[in-house]
Amino acid sequence: MAHDIDIMALDSRGNGVFSSDKSPLSITEYAGALLEQIEEGDNCIIGLSMGGMIAIEMARLSPKKVSKVVIINTSAANLSPWYRRFSIYAVIDAYRTRNRDNGVDWSEATALKLSSEHLGTSPAMAKKWSKLRQQNRVRLHNAVRQLCACAYFKCCDRLQQPIFVFSGVLDKLVSPECSQSIAEHYRCQLVEFDNAGHDISLDNPAALIAQLKKALL
Prior knowledge:
Layout lengths: L26 H9 L8 E5 L1 H12 L6 E5 L9 H4 L2 H9 L9 H10 L7 H13 L4 H12 L11 E6 L7 H11 L3 E4 L6 H4 L1 H12 L1
Parallel strand pairs: 1-2, 2-3, 3-4
Helix pairs in contact: 1-2, 4-5
């Protein structure tokens, strides 16, 4: 059965087409800026990691524009301790074991190693990410400001909309326990992906699409 679903890839302030903008220090400001890019209607917001925090806040701010929320490997300061929300040891290990091929940006190679269990050292993917970085490079001060915004994010007590929580069991950057805490907080089902790390779309895209269809339709 065919379904008509329009997909919009939204860039937050300080990223993508807005990479020259200064990144806010609060998730609420990111959410407000993204809400300006969409119209009222049946919009499902899907967010990974920091994007999941923004998705939750978008839903809180505007029930008329957000009908559903899907969050992937996300955390909140009021539900999980900092050492589960961000593993500095995983960052160090990813930097140490990153792809070092010529033409590969060290920061993108590190990010890829952190994000994917199966493509973490892929030369092709590392070069693709490095090429994308040349087009819209995230500035260092913006990256720091984004980390600060994430560190202080607290999810609201309740949402009017349905929320779906996805978790990669092999995630080394953000503990899967953070997703469990959010699912318990909102009393919703936790969908776990056994063969995926932080970025499920890289590690198990077919399974992710199947679960997204269940959430969206």
